[in-house]
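Input:
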Amino acid sequence: MKKLLLASTALALSAGMAAGEVKMGVLLGFTGPIESITPHMADGAEMAFREISESGLFLGGETITPVRADSTCVDSSAAQAAAERMISSDGVVAIMGADCSGVTMAVLQNVAMSAGIPMISPSATSPAFTTTESNGLFYRTAPSDARQGAVLAGIVKERGFSQVALTYTNNDYGAGFANAFEAAFIEMGGSITSKVAHEEARGDYSAEVGQLASAGGEALVVLGYVDGGGSMIRTAYELGAFENFFMGDGMFGDELIANVGDALEGTVGTIPWAAGEGADLFHAMAEAAGVQGQSSYTRESYDAAALLALAAQAAGEATPAGIAANILNVANEPGEPILPGELAKGLEILANGGEINYEGATNVTLVGPGEAAGFYREYVVENGEFVTVKFH
Amino acid sequence: MEPLNALVSLSNFMLIPAFAYGSQLALGALGITLIYSILRFAHFAHGDTMALGTAAVIGGTWFLQARGVGIAPLPTALLALPFGLLVMIAYLLAADRLVYRYYRRVKAKPMIFVMASLGVMFVTNGITRLFMGVGETRFEDGERFIFTVRQFRDVTGLDEGMALRSAQALTITTALIVMVALFWFLNRTRAGKSMRAYSDNEDLALLSGINPERVVVITWVITAILLVLAGTLFGLDKGFRPFNYFQLLLPMFAAAILGGLGSPIGAIVGAYVVAFAEMGITYAWRRVFAYLMPEGMEPDSMMQLLPVDYKFAVTFAILVIVLLFRPTGIFKGKVL
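Output:
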């Protein structure tokens, strides 16, 4: 305990902050293409920080203050500026974020790695992170699209389609996902008739759809966001180019059904999901706290935030190096399983020198830096609602 | 039946969208050409004022919808057009009074006018976003289709289908009516003739007793009508998003310059050339050729000259080629 106190005092002095306060960044795209889900993600993360602070057990009674900043999802320079600001002027010791793969990679390589700040992203799913060398600074709680590509390819094949056209949103996420899907689908004996990128926020998608239609195919696989991907589906349906659609996680959202309407009926898609005790506990907690726990990546955000705090506790000090070194230890076996709402128990075990295995809301298992195992929900749109088929 | 299938497929994916897009561009390019020939400057605020006019129409549409007023199966926006027109006329005249009139008085160089219109563009842009935000707003209501792909297939029994959306049909008819009306106005009415006279030779027009301020006002009013119509039709067809209106600036200018700046007929021809070039060069022709070629000779490649992403590059290329080889445009307009 004495050592712990010393460490935290030293930290407080060195960072020039009020004693007993640790700052952690919440870097999410509060403006831009995914602005409809990021407020809930931030709420999820802050719920975990609050739980830690209120327990009174974190590093001998310190509290965590979240610092929000806008990653914009698409503008790398804006995201880097936001990250730099939160590190240099706010003095955060770790970052919960960023969200979209492109800006996350930019922040990681240009800001976090030079400053030595650990990041846990709740939603960057590009396969590129699996192989990127981050000096042990980057982790994520959402599984890689390499796996989602394989899962989705299996679903398409299982439903009897062997020739499909493929369109993806023109960024790191879309391209990585599309490559993963293509590789998996061809390995399963299917073929891709045409692979076309589409931009977000265009008025007219008939040219893109025309190209896909020209190549033909039994179904159209759309790996994008609600905005552009939804327009692609609507245009393809209205022009009679395709009748059957499959889609990836970025497309999931009630807005999609409102925007696209009838064309979506019968569409099948995948999204990282969690079922079981941890998820149920989290949903109950979220409801009590007035947070939309069912929204995309809210669970992953809670887990990412909790992991950062638990890693700091395991290190005995809230320093970037200490957190980075302990994330894998607290996330994986061996140790006592910790579910949402049990963060205080986890803090206590760690303070007493024990080991924990953080399960959280999404059954967190980290496969080394940059990679997480996870589950996917297969859903189908029926009568304007997302209906679960099964879990993969 | 094979050539028929080819034609239907081509119409569905290229001809109809290009024709509708060309009509929207034509209305915009007409405004640019009018301002250029009478006020003698390149109006850079064109795309953004178009967005503002459309925003006013959308506001009017919401007002009417909230009161349950509609003209189904036609979109309610048509009913809100007069309101949008009033706002647009007031806005353009105010911009003229506050900005352009001063430069006219001091006989500023055309480049100064262009820069002033750039300023107006930024201000207009900001106002539109203040009211509408930057996201997409869809305000189309009423019947969405004249006929759908499935109906077309059932009726004709062809393999290929074709859809015609109400917004597309509306765009094409309205554009044709407006063009005819504009030519009638310019060639047959006293006001139209005085505008042409003023455009032809300013000093001579002044000596003949034509009031220049009146010509300017009429020009802005006609521009407002063209802008609101073009903007509303574009929005009905493709959804309203301020940034897309700003991006229309390039194809509209390309159309006006290609046709010959100052020539209304040139603006129309130029608009359709730009629209069909954009769509045709980036279209994958494989399906069409598969129907037309003899058995066994179907093409393997996509038969696409440029990827879809290069749409704007096509417009740029047209602009550069015209300025290099025929700066007066197809119909001998003024040199920029």
